Amino acid sequence: QVQLVESGGGLVQPGGSLRLSCVFYGSSFSMYVLGWYRQAPGKQREWVARITPGGSTNSADSVKGRFTISRDNAKNTVYLQMNSLRPEDTAVYFCNAEHMGSRRDYWGQGTQVTVSS
To answer: How confident is the model over 27-37, as a mean pLDDT?
Structure first.
């Protein structure tokens, strides 16, 4: 089984930065596409960014140029560097891991990010 544990959320002022981390507990980390999603109060969960085992990345238009996803295969960890944060980035951020073969996916418990002055 796979367990994902996020950390790094918190309260930050507009224009500030945060780095989220998600540690993957399980086997075959290199076989998983990793992603970040977020859910704001009263809204549906939305996709933020993803990274393949080979390091190819994609991100939502709303965060492009501000957020960067990366992975460290030696540490079984995926990161989301968030810069130039805006109040509308306030949400619970979730880590997701999808197996490239079976397509089975797993979710972390989420970490709260609040952007406010």
So the answer is: 96
